[in-house]
Amino acid sequence: MSLDVEGLSVRRGRREVLAPASFALPPGCVAGVVGPNGAGKSSLLAAVAGLLPAEGRVHWQGRPLVPQQVGFLPQCFAVKSRLTVLECLLLGLRESLGWRVQPAQVAAAERMLARLGLSQLSDRPMEALSGGQQQLVLLAQRLLRRPVLLILDEPTSALDLHHQVQVLRHVRAHAEETGGVVLTALHDLTMAARFCDRLLLIEAGTLTAEGPPAEVLDEPRVTRIWRIDIEILASREGHPVIVPH
Amino acid sequence: MTVALAMPGHAIRRETAGRLAMLGAAALVLLALAVTDLVTGPSGMPLGKVLAAFAAGPDGADRGAATILWQLRMPQTLTGVLVGASLGVAGLVMQTILANPLASPYTLGFSAAAGFGAALGIMFGGLLPLAVWIVVPASAFAMTLVACCLIYAIARARGASPEVLVLAGIATLFFFQSLQSLLQFLAAPEVLQQIVFWLFGSLLKSSWTSVQAIFLILCIAAPILARDVWNLTALRLGEANAASLGLDIDRLRRRCFALVALLTAGAVSFTGTIGFIGLIAPHVARRMVGEDHRFALPVAAVLGAVLLVAASVIGKLISPGAVIPVGIITAIAGIPMLLAVILKEGGRR
Questions:
Q1: How do residues A99-129 score in pLDDT, each as one tens digit?
Q2: Do A81 and B238 touch (CB under 8 A)?
Q3: Cα(B72)–Cα(A69) distance, rounded to whole angstroms?
Q4: What range(s) does the ABC transporter domain occupy (chain A) (predicted)?
Q5: Which sign does the torsion angle of CA A72, A77, A80, A82 carry?
Q6: pLDDT of B194 strictly over 70
Q7: Which of A91, A124, A126 has the most B C-beta neighbours within 10 Å, making it the best mutation to test the interface with B?
Q8: CA-based nearest distance B112→chain A, Å
Q9: Residue scoring higher pLDDT (B214 or B341)
Q10: Is B331 within 8 Å of B106 (Cβ atoms)?
Q11: Which residues of B touch A72 (CB under 8 A)?
């Protein structure tokens, strides 16, 4: 396995917001973290990224994970900055930037913008973009870093359906090209089932299920956790489709 | 596709050239103002005599002209340039690390601490076996660093978040202002007059010592800030985003905070409190060259110097006989500028 998480737990004061969680993910895997609001998805992701004080260990290929190996995109927030989209992308290469930005660095940023269909926004200030566009630019910035572990906290929350699919395809392509692992929190269970190889289900701060989407998303469990009456159908490719009644 | 990809690279080169041109233009304005500052003054020395004194050097035959130019005007102008640059840089760094467009070296009470230090030096400096011109700036400098340590200790205990730093700064500001008031209350009338004059903020206290000291501090701060230009730029995208790019924000804040204290201490300990430069220069710099700190920092430095030297020239022109202290000019001119900033920022939201 590439990513090994063992006994990872988070406390806020005396309250345990994440009970010890253990899981392992293979190279090239896209894993979705699902669960109701306030279940502890963001705490799990931030703890794996090393951005939250936590107990337990996170290893990448047998060695402790270091911050430079991680690309973390927090939940959607408004960026109020006059930095241009291209400048924002270049900041993804922060550690290697000098006083003079190298043409190769600009070219790499431009390629990433083109890949995500953002070239036309290149010289626009970040503050002038919509929430969805900002989210795409920040994702492009993280992809430019080529992290071995890409962690995304609800990366599609501000996006229309077209861009949701586009983002999740890019995320999949990233995992396949780099052999890295993607860990992403998603609210849309059908999308999670369609684009993720495995799902981690969090309930009230506890990791209660982990496995392929078809195993994790069974009707009684989804009905119980999300407190809605649903039916699970199958798409043409055999992915679960969650239909609420 | 090829054309679309080629465009941004071209745009970034054009943008860089434009920003360098802005920096050059600001430097030329500064040069023009510095020359104007040198050729004007209460002595009413004609331009020809100033140029002759400049050509003759500090040991020129016309002792009166040489003293006015080399011992009075030159240190005042250079101190104005260096203090303005220090306050411009300190203001920009402060606004970036606190994510607050209204932050300036005054927000954290550094100037109030310097004022208290100077008042202490003026009142009790005579008890020390040192000259008053050394004791007063040294005491102002030391007290600014005490304020810095105080806020730093709070930040260490409670985390260096913008909210903690601003609140600790406001507490420090009121603490030192109240101590300053206490000293003014206790001071004899002639000492009180000296304290009040110091607090005005004036370049008349300048000397070659102040030029050397402030220049040395700028030389210490500049390379450290130069190393952090991309980190400071990343912070403009917001704390969460910068942290998720692997930036240790608390460490960056503490480092920059210490440098801001040093720059402010160096600037105000020789001239007294000069307001608004550290607030206005960063805003104008960001409007001119954007938020890339490779350009914003030097432009804020040059603009800070431009504002202060312009205030000096205006002070001399308004009242040729008795120079109006620059602190008064910057405070009067700064209020409409501050209102413009507030209205502009409000409009952006």
A1: 888 889 999 999 999 999 899 999 899 999 9
A2: yes
A3: 58
A4: 3-229
A5: positive
A6: yes
A7: A91
A8: 31
A9: B214
A10: no
A11: 244
> In the predicted model, is pLDDT for residue B4 greater than 60?
no
Residues of A in contact with B17 (CB under 8 A): none
| Domain CATH for A32 | 3.40.50.300
Q: What is the pLDDT of residues A187-229, one digit of tens each?
A: 999 999 999 999 999 999 999 999 999 999 989 999 999 998 8
**Beta-ladder partners of A10:** A18
Substitution target from B5, B244, B247 for chain A, most A beta carbons within 10 A = B244
Contacts of B230 in chain A (CB under 8 A): 91, 94, 97
Find the DSSP H helices in chain A: 41-49, 85-90, 103-115, 131-144, 161-178, 189-195, 213-216, 219-226
Contact by Cβ (8 Å): B300, B235 = no
Q: How far is A152 from chain B (nearest CA, A)?
A: 11
B174/A contact by beta carbon, under 8 A? no
Chain A hits for B347, Cβ within 8 Å = none
Rounded-to-integer distance, Cα B136 and Cα B183, Å: 14
Residue with the bigger pLDDT between B4 and A92: it is: A92
Q: What is the mean pLDDT of residues B8-30?
A: 87
Contacting residues for B97 by C-beta, under 8 A, at least 6 apart:
B162, B165, B232, B235, B252, B253, B256, B257
DSSP letter string over B37-76?
Answer: HHH--TT---HHHHHHHHHH-TT-S-HHHHIIIIIIIHHH
| Cβ contact B208:B82 at 8 Å | no
Shortest alpha-carbon distance between residue B101 and chain A (Å):
12
Nearest to B305 by CA among B261, B328, B274, B331: B274
Counted domains in chain A: 1
d(CA B279, CA B111): 13
Are B290 and A101 a contacting pair at CB < 8 A?
no
Chain B residue numbers touching A94 (CB-CB < 8 A): 230-231, 234, 245-247
User: By CB neighbour count within 10 A (0-12 exposed, 13-18 middle, 19+ buried), where does A63 fall?
Assistant: exposed
Q: Whose CA is closest to A141, among A180, A81, A91?
A: A91
Q: Using a CB-CB distance cutoff of 8 angstroms, which residues of chain B are in contact with residue A67?
A: 246
Where in the sequence is the domain holding A54, given as residue range(s)?
A: 3-244
Residue A78: closest C-alpha in chain B: B238
- C-alpha distance from A113 to closest chain B C-alpha (Å): 9
Q: Which residue has the higher pLDDT, B11 or B223?
A: B223
The pLDDT tens digits for B40-64 are: 888 878 888 888 888 888 888 888 8
Select the residue of B1, B241, B292 nearest A87 (Cβ to Cβ).
B292
Comparing alpha-carbon positions, the chain B residue that sits nearest to A125 is B290
> Residue for token digits 């929190």?
A185
- Tell me what pLDDT residue B340 has: 80
Its ipTM equals 0.84
Domain range annotation of chain B: 77-343
In terms of DSSP H, where are the helices of A21-160? 41-49, 85-90, 103-115, 131-144
* B18 has a pLDDT exceeding 70: yes
B21 and A CB contact within 8 Å? no
Calculate how close chain A gets to B226, using CA atoms only, in Å: 9
Among the CATH numbers 2.60.40.10, 1.10.3470.10, 3.30.160.620, 2.40.50.140, which is that of B77-343? 1.10.3470.10
